[in-house]
Amino acid sequence: MIQFTDLEPSLRALEEGGLILYPTDTVWSIGCDATNADAVARLKALRQLPEGHPLVILVADMDMLKAHAGFVHPRVETLLAHHQRPLTMVFDEGVGLPQEALGADGSVALRITKDPFCLQLIHEFGKPIVATAACIGAGPIPTHFGEVSSAVIENVDYVVRHRQMDKQMEQPSVIARLNDDEELDFIRE
User: Fold this and answer.
1) What is the pTM of this model?
2) CB 105 within 8 A of CB 45
3) Which of 109, 139, 154, 155 has a CA between 20 and 30 Å from the CA of residue 83?
């Protein structure tokens, strides 16, 4: 297992209800304990997101996803097991998460991360973590750490050093939802 020097301070910030700035399997993100209503509200205030704006929540594995997604259709489970690109699935009902972490309709957007740092962080934390793009409002999504605004950096409790020198991050994840006909509707490709 890789030893990440940022793990302990990241865990400490999350446990204290703080915000972290960290690289994910997609883009640099602002994160917090997805089960902590106050932390999620603080994150939304920093991002200047409207009430009911959905957030992407990272989980470590299928068990954690099932614990927070309500019902997971077997077709979605198979898709998640085999999809190569990061895939965020929207589920009708969030379970064990505060209203602040859910969409206006009570839905939840969950992604099983494949990033080694995120996986280890979530496993050790034992809870899901929010992963919203490290920008303010609808501002441009930073493609690497150098594009993260100082307004974000100055208002989080810990900035992860891991991968700060990477100049190319991935694109935001694909977002999909299973419709009433049990077919995938792609919200973002």
Assistant:
1) 0.94
2) no
3) 139
d(C-alpha 105, C-alpha 156), whole Å: 28
Scored b (16 or more CB within 10 A) or e, 16-33 reads eebbbbbbbbbbbbbbbb
Structure token digits, residue 143: 């493609």
Q: Are residues 44 and 53 in contact, defined by beta-carbon separation less than 8 angstroms?
A: yes
Q: What angle do CA 41, 103, 131 make, to 5 degrees?
A: 60
Hey, what domains does the chain have and what are their CATH numbers?
A: 7-188 (3.90.870.10)
